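TEACHING EXERCISE
Course module: macromolecular assemblies
Task: Read the component lines below, then compare them to the predicted structure of the full complex.
Student: A.B.
Group: 4
Components provided:
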Amino acid sequence: MSRAIAAAAVLAFALTACGSGDSGGGGQAAESRTLTYWMYQDRTPQAGEVVEKIRKDFEKANPGVTVKIVKIPKDDFNTKLGSAISSKTGPDVSTLDQPLVSKYAKDGTIVELPAGTVSEGTYFKGAYDTNLGTDGKYYGLPLDQTGVALFYNKKLVPTPPTTWDEMKAASEKVHAADPNVAGMVVPKGDGYGGWMFPGIVAGNGLEMADVASKKILFDQPQAVEALQLWVDLLKSSPRKITDSDQPFQNGLAGMMISGPWDVPTIREQFPELDFSVAPLPYKTEPAGNIGGENAVVYKTSPNQDLAWKWLTFITNETNNGPLADALGGFPVHTKATAVGSGPEHEAFLAQLKVAHARPAVPEWIQINDEIIAPAIESALLGKMTAQEALTDAANKTRSLLGWNS
Amino acid sequence: MSSTPVVAGRRRRRSAPGRRRDHVIAWLLIAPALVYFVVFLLYPALSALYYSFTDWNLRTTASWVGFQNYVDLFTDEVKYPHFWKSVQVTLQYTIIAVPLTLGTALIQALLINAIKRGSNLFRLLLFLPVVTAEAAVGAIWRWLYDPRYGLINSVLEVFGIPGQNWLNTPELVIPALAFISAWQCGIAMIIFLAGLKGIPGSILEAATIDGANAFQRFRKVVMPMLRPTTFYLLVTGVIAALQVFGLVYVIFSGAGRSVTGGPEQSGLAYVLHLYLFAFRYDAMGAACAMSFILLVFIMIITAVQFKFVKQEAA
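Instructor-supplied answer key:
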């Protein structure tokens, strides 16, 4: 039962044992300083080469500086990082999953981005804003970004819809033509669906919350309409069809909402599927959600200035394109060139320019999983209306956060 | 766990230094197990007990909150909206999975015990699900339960029963999971088989001569004589079922799937809920409290079984 906790404790041991030698990192003397950077393990050997090249370039540009990169499997990353921080053997600077930034900021584990480090408009707003703390200050820099867009089967849906109404019409048309085929794979009320939902709400001109004034907004009409859209789409997209294995890939659904990671896997495993990707349909303005990696600098680091220098270097105009590609996402620097080409690539690029960051609330993952996701599901199952479900969820969220207004 | 040193000290006539040497050897022999126990089990468990009384997120210094975590878990539906749901899911799973698993294991053991030739082969085949990697089990069963292509629905349709959307219908999730655990009953099967081998043939023979038919022999001889075996399997089975995690995790997680325990939290097992708080929601202190609530609950359930379930062979 306490196996997980035991594992965490063991990890802490192991890390103290092997991490103690190097963390202090270079005496203050300018001639030799070591910066320790933790990141996820490389996705491919090529990705490793990209990172290595950037590291060497940085060392060349900064004589006397050594960057020590520690790569940790993604599944263990947060636990190892947490244990290392608590035992004061953490790195100077590390990758950090987006929703964790506001948590670490609240702890005082990481430091605020020093004023003047980056100029306004260097990064896309959505990606940059994922580094916000609850206090409205920035605590990190984005490394790459990803998000979801609309995949459509060209045979079933010849022209991709651009508005909600067109999307509903396209879905109904597909299902009417063949009752064994679903209009689209409608997201579910689970953690993943909860992650996509804010992108749809933003397409109707609303954020999930206004953190600065401590207001939960996702029970407003714009959000209710977004959820109603999913409810309506479900009518022409029975789950009996879409719950089967990879329904879109098998040609059993006209559309699905998914991310860039699915493009190469579908090309490889379903070469006969004629599909493409378009930006998400919207109601009032193009919008989408966002995921990806950020990087932060730790309070305990004696090399904070150097750490920020490293982060601005790896995300600059030249390096961010290859780096983002190595990390499996898209560049966050507005002037960087994304690796890749083709209509799918263009669609995701367009999508990410209008991405909206999650509310900078440390408890957001929990709210997403435990409150918003079940609300989406009860509306989809018809147990509550969209309005009832979201009103209930918003009230629960207000109580949890103590934002009663 | 209780590796008490009871090796030395028997032979009274040995001289004192000899006895001391025995003690040293004894301690040396148990040292590896003891070190393992203290470092990897006792110390983490005691730390977890301490942390269960704190507000802690793994990174910062834990702050003492007394019984707050425990009280909140039981009463605060805003902070822990699905705690009781996870308790309910786990109890339902235990109630369905344990009898189903033991029943399947007993039937398999009786069948293997009855055949003359090839019993090794069948034993191996029936044991295979136990040694299959959990991720593979998840993949196989997601496929078997697939609403459109799944083998289970195809078989049901042969009998005119409409196919079900097994893993996506809240009411069917727990039975579907329990069925997988019954499929993995190999260890219980082997233990039952050993129990069956331990029943003297002469008793069965005597029963046959007295005119007992196969069913009567099973009810009046085999079942009573298997009681210690059944009791052991019941106790360990209940403990394992209350801690179910891996199965639920592999079935309901992975790319593009929910981590939150299936449709409407219908598969949100207690330990999965605990895991989410520990590693996803950053509430290690509360997760430690959950683990100790489970520990106490398991101890109570086990004590109740020892008190009320017959365990001696009759």
